[in-house]
Amino acid sequence: MELLLSVLVCLSLTRTHAQTSERPDCYECDEDLFCNCSAKTLHRVPIVPTNVLSLDVSFNEIESITEEDLTVYTALRTLKLQKNKLGAIHTDAFHSQSNLEELDLSFNALEDISSLWFSSLRSLKHLNILGNRYTTLGSVGLFQFVENPALRTLRFGNPSIEDIKRNMLNKIGRLDELTFVGGKLRSYESGSFKTARPIREVSLSLQRLFQDDPALVSKILRDVSHPETSLIIRDVSLETREPIQAFKEVRDGSTSRLTFQNTSTTDEGVTLLLEVLDGSPMSYLGLEDIRLVGEGLWERAWRTHYENLHTMFIRNIEIQGFFRFSSMIQLAFLLKPLTKISVVNATVFVIPCFTTYFLQKVEYLDLSQNLLSDIT
Prior knowledge:
Distance between the termini: 99 Å
Helix content: 10-25%
Number of strands: 18
Number of domains: 2
Radius of gyration: 26 Å
Strand order of the largest sheet: 1-2-4-6-7-8-10-12-13-14-15-16-17-18
Shape: elongated
Strand content: 15-25%
């Protein structure tokens, strides 16, 4: 009998060791209990010290997270899993992570996002699920099963997402930052991007959606335009009237801070945008990584009014066919109310004397990384 019991114990220990040995060890941890296990060709979540606070397993080959992989790491505050091959996560994978504040699952192969993953994450403040393969987030809110979620930053979307439901942000009373990528979106229910309090910053990468479905874009902009919301529009081409008309929602929503990033436009497109936003209370305008084409024809822009504009930030402007541009002096009226101006890396080589007449209110001027010389 004793011999049989000993054999069973040995078999049990052997099986346990075999199961554990499938997971690699990673003890590259510092005194702050941060374990850096990034880019080590790992195929499983590694075994790390149980008191770990921050775990980075990004840029590996991890395909799944089981129910047991994270169970013992109850003190975990930050978990970075981006740039793996994650296609499956057990519904209870994060059940022990009630202290987790940051979770990055971006750029994996997740085809579904389950609300059950987040049911125990009552401390979660930052969630990134960008760049996966899901086409919808489902009909249940992401934090439907969490009372008073602490979420402050949400980044989601991908080139394949097609559908956004209205209850997606249910129970989330306040967001500081919302980032969405969705150039192939087909359906958006009004109110989907609204929370109890205005979102502090919204970044939208809608790409060709401005051309393909401007009515859908208008619905999105209507939800996110608010005096207390900084709006960032990325990865877009604004050249013709129809896609630019959607910015009426930005004006009507009294958006005060508007930034364009990685945007292509023309002199006609700029004029149309100024006409659509005419009379808005916008106080900040940002232009970053802009490609501009045209001949410098801005006549109609003179009729627009931007008395509330006090800050303009311009960085990395490329004027294609610059030699064809007659002048930008017709846009100088935009400088008159400004108190802060930054024009960085925009190939500025001269400032006409006439332009200085419009700079009477300027208190801060940044012309760094340009072509100005002593002779100028």
